Amino acid sequence: MTLDASTYKAWIGQKESSSDFLTLAPLRGLAATLNKVQLDYQPGDVLPPLWHWLYFLSPARQSKLGNDGHAERGDFLPPIPLPRRMWAGSRFEFHRPLHAGEKISRVSTIKSINFKAGRSGQLAFVTVKHEISTELEKAISEEHDIVYRDHVPADAAPAEPKQVEQEADYFKSINPDPVLLFRYSALTFNGHRIHYDRDYVTKVEGYPGLIVHGPLLATLLVDLLAEQFPEKSLQRFEFRAMNPVFDLNPFDVCGSNPDQNGNLNLWIKDHNNALCMQARANIV
Hints:
Layout: E1 15-21, H1 24-33, E2 84-94, E3 103-118, E4 121-134, E5 138-149, E6 170-174, H2 178-187, H3 198-203, H4 214-228, E7 234-241, E8 251-255, E9 263-269, E10 275-283
Antiparallel strand pairs: 1-3, 2-5, 2-7, 3-4, 4-5, 6-8, 7-10, 8-9, 9-10
Helix pairs in contact: 1-2
């Protein structure tokens, strides 16, 4: 399949606005899912970074879902006819904390649409910019990269994953059992079948097991950072998905100590030392 970038130019600059309240139940649910000791959130409590992903959910009617469990394309996101859609990465600036109970708003803009050839065929990258604000001021600037790709041919040789070379200054091992994946899917109203439907992910998409959500991996990285440096504040964070993480084996969430300017590296590696997600952060 050859896709023409000019076909999708009309989507660049398209905007979508939404609002939400930072209610307590999702916060308590994610705290329990991440095995926190303290589960009781109250109005006014500060949200940990990235927990805003529990909000601005856009439930699609059941009749409007595609075979993969995602909402059909062609409304806000362009209708790119490639069957596999994944979260490729994100970049954040944190301007001020969010607090439980606040009303928040989000303006989303399609910033760019780019195509390139990959090992398994054509790839499409869509970048969406989100500006999240409270009633007082801007809180978070986020850029979200989405990759669309074709199914990998059955006879294609798997790509050799990059190995982790850096030694971790601190790390945590995570066992990604199906219950963890189900709970995060439920909290974020994520119907993508690769996270909970083993028959679909293995027989249709050709993966060996259920795939751990990219946003969950990023949340685990930031959570590890907060545990290591509880007195510090996260100013900037960016991550890139490098290799899928499956529910078949434990994986490690790792980090380095910050330099004199508060910059540090974070990463996730699987049981074979493959680099699955790489990230950078700045704390003050």
